[in-house]
């Protein structure tokens, strides 16, 4: 086939050519009838598929890592040297980890101008909580329960990343997880499928916008399909073995929500599920995702997850792995080199149907069309826009807003917080207090080290107090990179005395302690959930000389905080809050923002309770207070409940709930109302939460399930009636055949400020 005039949009020409061949029209006739707007995407894709060789179709299914950033182990197949050659042959459909307009344009140019058909690449990157201007880590954002703010945060991330040449993000991660040992909880929305679904929906909408072809939107990716968050003992990449009911009712709903939001891609995962690696799982990818849920975007493998089916003991070798993955509906191979090396041969040998290759290529081309890449492959490659867009003040404002909303006040005895603005001696202690890198958290994309506002800087804005800073002790030793194991300081206490001296004379001590940014995230599992290194010792040493401590936590997962809850007057959960971290924390400490966050994961009393989650089952032997009887489901040494339950979080003001009314409208509709009053002295925001308990069912139901929430702002003494409607969607559940059913019976309805609320009413449906 002849090389096509590249001054006009490449693939429109191809379509024109093929449609002309079909209809005997001339190219100029076809062009004047504005073919691109008349033909719908499916016809365009058909036209292209007809022009493609088997190898070129397989090429669309091949994704290579770029040449700079690395987010996984280097595959064993040794294709690295062939990447440019394969690009030029049209054997590459996508690249990941390319960023910056110059770089992306250079690589895209090869695909568009040097391959036979000029099909543009789709450029993927892990834009998880921002590109250069970072929002809080996703778990922190989830603590806001503020869907609008979360959507805006994804919009900001999309706008910046798209200005840097990226058109596809590997986000949102919608894996439900109940295990704080698993480092990736930082990337999700926590333990609850209802909250997780709402957040998943908001994030997809934020990334994708209403028009994917705009130059400031990204295709989103729901990951990791499925059940990756249930890795045994919280150890990364570990085996998953969960039951059907958990799969249907806990794992699937957030994925379904991304489909409702129109997500264009899915990523499968590293884990096996009940003996079958999910990358090679036909039930998940074909039966559920593509058939039952009618998903018409494409599925990308996780990094090397096709090849890893050999290590799992499911595939004989990389060729066999390619066969299994392609047959199971895995459309694109990220860095296993299995498809590009093996798939065409497998088709010729009759082991993989060509129809599957056509289907996968069609799905990938469809998304490329939707992104507008065929109209203009360089639409994300405008250097001027890149300069103007990235780092805009508006993005910093949005990230600050999101950061403040993500903070959760865990304890505030005797109103120690907010801090007085004048006349105080404040000691600020902890290496994390002056850290300008760690608050960026994991998945930094293009954010540079030392670009976060530190707590020290944030507090220095308030000049009415005398602020003295002392590090106390390092948390980690040396510079940490994404690919490094984090080295924690477990010995050096040489700077304790200086910090103790500063604390001794202070009115209030603010201690910023916790995990460094790379202690959570992929491959960052922990077996201890205390403060790492010598920080606990430092805290207790300071406590001996000054008890007036505000503990500000920086962490990417729930921690065990019993000592802290028992001894310290104030505790602020500040996660890793991104670029504007220090400003957000200072504004909360000084009361310029009244905290309103609520925990998206339960915080355990002891590591041995993990996995711990509010929506557990009742068991046949729940606690019934019979004296002198030991035979109930419990531990001998710790009570069953978490230290801080799901949905928990305080405010500088107080809220009162009253007048819970529940009205049964029909068998499947219930109206609920409650009155909320701000009974304190500050204007504040409360997340009003509604839970149900279905008392008996053909498949047992959890003791409580979140089924509604609303953010309500009230001035002191102001009251508001809040209303909810429960319908089939909230009252039903999935049976073990995957059917959604609603059963009559007794239900309790709970409304309040956390999952432990006692305000309740019982109904029969
Ligand atoms: C592996 C991670 O599991 C996945 O979430 C990520 O998108 C890819 N690496 C690409 O970096």
Within CATH, the superfamily of the domain at 403-609 carries the name: Glycoside hydrolase family 3 C-terminal domain
Helix content: 25-40%
Q: With helices defined by DSSP (H or I, 4 residues minimum), what is the helix count?
A: 24
Q: Tell me the CATH architecture of the domain at 403-609.
A: 3-Layer(aba) Sandwich
The CATH C-level name of the domain at 403-609 is Alpha Beta
What is the CATH topology of the domain at 403-609?
Rossmann fold
Number of strands: 25
Apparent shape: globular
Distance from N terminus to C terminus (CA atoms, Å) equals 68 Å
Which ranges are low-confidence, i.e. pLDDT below 50, for 5 or more consecutive residues?
1-38
Q: Return the average pLDDT rounded to an integer.
A: 94
Class of secondary structure makeup: alpha/beta
Q: What value does the Rg take, in angstroms?
A: 27 Å
Quick summary of this structure?
By secondary structure, the chain is α/β, with parallel strands linked by helices. It is built from 24 helices and 25 strands.
List keywords for this structure.
Immunoglobulin-like, 765 residues, six-stranded mixed sheet, disordered N terminus, 25 strands, Rossmann fold, 24 helices, binds 1-deoxynojirimycin
